[in-house]
Amino acid sequence: MKQKRPVLGAAMILLATFLFGLNGSTAKTVMATGVTAEQITLFRSLSACLIAGVFVFFRNRSAFKLAKGEWKWLVLLGTAGVGLMQWSYANAVANLPVGVALLIQYTAIILVPIASIFIYKTRVSSRLWLGVALVLSGLVVVSHVWESGLNGVGVLFGAIAAFATATYYLIGEHVHHTRDAFSTLFYSMAVSALMWVGLSHFWTFDFTRFTTTVDLGGNLAGTVIPAWMLFAWLGVMGSFVPLFLTYAALPHLSATGVGIFSTTETIFGFLFAYLWLGEKIDGLQTLGGLLVIAGIVIAQISRRTNSWQPSN
């Protein structure tokens, strides 16, 4: 049995959440140039699918085989989980501060144990309801509902992302009982890519865009880089690499540990959005964000079975 190395696992997860946190600002900058959320989702899914496919081909080709009935779960994972999750998250960050969008999406972690009570008859501790109360209270503070301070469309997309992420958790946990992580990644991303081929109207995409330059905007306004570098980052460093690190960390940490460390994505999301895009939140919203993160951690440790972790 492979020796567990918790410190290595924690380092992998922190690097993964660092990259995922940066990915929100990257996607927002790319969409500001006219690229749609649908096209972003197609590009990310296709990139991760191709890289994962190469990995499985050289590592374990037998993993490409599907058992009878298995395809139904993978199709559901790729559409309702991966495809819908990435699309709704992209739309959420286009309409909301990146960190706020992540906080709303991560409420999926309190939806999973609640759903598992009814679906899998999972036992949870009473701490779950404390976590739920903290998350809801924190979201009320972050959103400044008394001022109608957030974009309603963005909040709606954030809520869709939360439900899609919860679906990703639940179906992914089922799939991983019989399938390795990388072949699951290959098939789920392939289904997502097929889903968005038509919906993204990719034939209208101006491929000369890759040869143009992009102003990074925000606090980096005036800094210009080739557009292909941003797209390459989205596909490789914003999708495949952090997913790879997350999966590689699972043998070294419990799923609960991975889930707790994963909440640092919200912190990195806020940090990069502040440093790069100039997005700011006030002191009261910061307190609300901390309440949400605390509630998520408490909800995560309330569940007494393993769970699979999400990705942006």
Account of the 3D structure:
Helices cover 71% and strands 2% of the residues. The protein has 312 residues and is mainly alpha-helical. Helix 1 (6-31) packs parallel to helix 11, helix 3 runs antiparallel to helix 7 and helix 4 (98-105) crosses helix 7 (152-175). The longest helix has 26 residues, at 6-31. It is globular and about 50 Å long. The two termini are 31 Å apart. The model is unreliable at 305-310 (pLDDT under 50).
In quaternary terms, these chains amount to: single chain
Number of helices: 12
Span between N and C termini?
31 Å
What coarse outline follows from CA principal-axis ratios?
globular
Overall structural domain count: 1
Note the main sheet: 2 strands, antiparallel
What's the order of the H and E elements? HHHHHHHHEEHHHH
DSSP strand (E) fraction?
A: under 5%
Mean pLDDT across the residues is: 84
Class inferred from helices and paired strands: mainly alpha
List the strand order in the largest sheet.
1-2
Spans where pLDDT lies below 50 across 5 or more residues: 305-310
Taking all Cα atoms into account, the compactness measure Rg is 19 Å
- The number of E-state strands comes to 2
Query: Which percent range fits the helix content?
Result: over 70%
